[in-house]
Amino acid sequence: MQNDIKKLRNKYKKHGYKSLTDREKIEFILSYSEKNAECIKKATEKILNTHNIINGEMKTDIFFAMNEFGISMESAVLLNLILKITKICSLNKLKIHSDNFKKIKLNSIDNSKKFFNAFFHNSYTEELIVVAVNENLEIINHKKIISSESDMIEVSHKKIYHFAKANNSERIFFAHCHPYGSSKPSQRDIDTTLKIKHTLNLLNIKLVDHIVVGKDDATSICEILKTNAEY
To answer: How far apart are CA 59 and CA 15, in angstroms?
Structure first.
């Protein structure tokens, strides 16, 4: 196993982190906090069997990870922090610091895709967020409305309306993610968008766009429906 770890580290040095499989990524990370090669192998197997891919483990409770996978606190903390660090790096590429999103402009479909793609970076469950913006399409506030283990998200018109009113905003975005799949919206996504847009219009609140973020890309439902007049 020690020879395998050495080969793994050489592979990382030559080809980078993205060249590693999920199994190799976990073994690579654990090799810096676990001294026992057999422990690394067993822990990796348990993590893959429980979560399928590494992103699942990275959001697991630290003490659960220690007990469930037989790893040290150092390893559990390390795996848990990776998600946060990679998300921060993704946001920093857009010159967005931590969760301070105020004044970020979502004034084009491209900007919106980039922002929400970074926001959902490494999410492993479907989440829906609503973002209130001002007349210049600068972010005022955001709120997670739903987090779900299922592949269906039920959208509450009432929650979205109250959020917009609480932030004195007449324009909102909402976005949700398909963590392991395509960003292509389902017919249900499109139908839900149209219903909410109609309902909010009656309440003098404009739904600027609904962005769907997939594993590797993002899609604007507004763009699909060719109704981008609010940008």
So the answer is: 26
CA distance 30 to 8: 12
Please give the model's pTM, rounded to 2 decimal places: 0.62
Using an 8 Å Cβ cutoff, are 182 and 215 in contact? yes
Q: What is the pLDDT of residues 36-46, one digit of tens each?
A: 888 888 888 88
pLDDT digits (tens, 9 = 90+) for 119-164: 887 676 778 889 999 999 999 998 887 655 444 445 667 778 888 8
Residue 226 structure tokens: 């060719």
Task: Write the CA distances from 95 to 92, 104, 206, 207, integer angstroms.
Answer: 5, 9, 27, 25
**CA gap 219, 120 in Å, rounded:** 13
Cα–Cα distance list, 176 to 26, 77, 117, 200 (Å)? 27, 27, 10, 18
Nearest one of 215, 130, 136, 220 to 178, comparing CA atoms: 215
Question: Which of 189, 187, 159, 163 is CA-nearest to residue 175?
Answer: 189
C-alpha–C-alpha distance, residues 182 and 25, integer Å:
23
Angle (deg, nearest 10), helices 73-92 and 109-119? 170
Q: Beta strand 171-177 with 206-213: parallel, antiparallel or unpaired? A: parallel
